[in-house]
């Protein structure tokens, strides 16, 4: 049966400030700058790359201070845990190199490619004061950490109105939790694709949904017609690892902020 791409799935990667970090690390000025510098670096061709730091004044008090010619934070160390290794990890470190040079802040990137989320939770729960920032590809998990009192509220040192204007995804991805901002979206990755059977859709008269509500309505319609709207293929190793339940739960999530990350095929 011929199939085509139907809906590109994505994973939101969020930069968060960990509350257990020690005061001497001074993570505050680094968090919005790291995101801005990395985004600018990614958008600029390497052949003509300018220093990846924002021009001052930026409108962010802490950031403007960090970028001052007197480098008031010079010698401070900020540690960030990421899940990127290899070339992706190298590129991330390069993306903050100009910020380090401009501010004198030493950004230490802890690369944890395997069990990143488990290691991160262990460090947070253990009040690891060497950890200042972290990158996590699950907005809902970021909010949960914030509600547990494990994170620094970004709105406590950055104007939330300006932050929302500059980074609308803060609100779109549910990271603004009643006025408390638990993270800054850093990137969006396409993780997988949902496929649908074109001929079977045509035979039943089903229209390809364009919104989440239309997707739910179509799924209900397929069930009412006596069939199953979703299926998921898993390798035996994944089944033994107990990941099938987690994947299906993610795929069926009703929260737009928790965008599905598994592949599936509506079955007619």
What does this structure look like?
The protein has 268 residues and is an alpha/beta fold. Helix 1 packs across helix 3. It starts with a strand and ends in a 17-residue tail after the last helix. It folds into 2 domains: 68 residues, no CATH class; 180 residues, D-Maltodextrin-Binding Protein, domain 2 (3-Layer(aba) Sandwich), CATH 3.40.190. The strands form 2 sheets. A 5-stranded mixed sheet has the order 3-2-4-1-7, sandwiched between helices.
Secondary structure blueprint with pairings:
Blueprint: E1 3-17, H1 30-43, H2 61-66, E2 77-82, H3 86-103, E3 106-111, H4 116-125, E4 133-136, H5 139-147, H6 160-166, H7 169-172, E5 176-177, E6 180-181, E7 184-197, H8 198-204, H9 212-224, H10 236-240, H11 244-251
Parallel strand pairs: 2-3, 2-4
Antiparallel strand pairs: 1-4, 1-7, 5-6
Summarize the structure.
The chain is α/β, with parallel strands linked by helices. The protein is built from eleven helices and seven strands. It folds into two domains: 3-9 and 191-251, no CATH class; 10-189, D-Maltodextrin-Binding Protein, domain 2.
- Strand adjacency order, main sheet: 3-2-4-1-7
Number of strand segments: 7
- Biggest sheet, open or closed, and with what strands and sense? 5 strands, mixed
Overall mean confidence score, pLDDT: 77
Number of helices: 11
User: How many distinct domains?
Assistant: 2
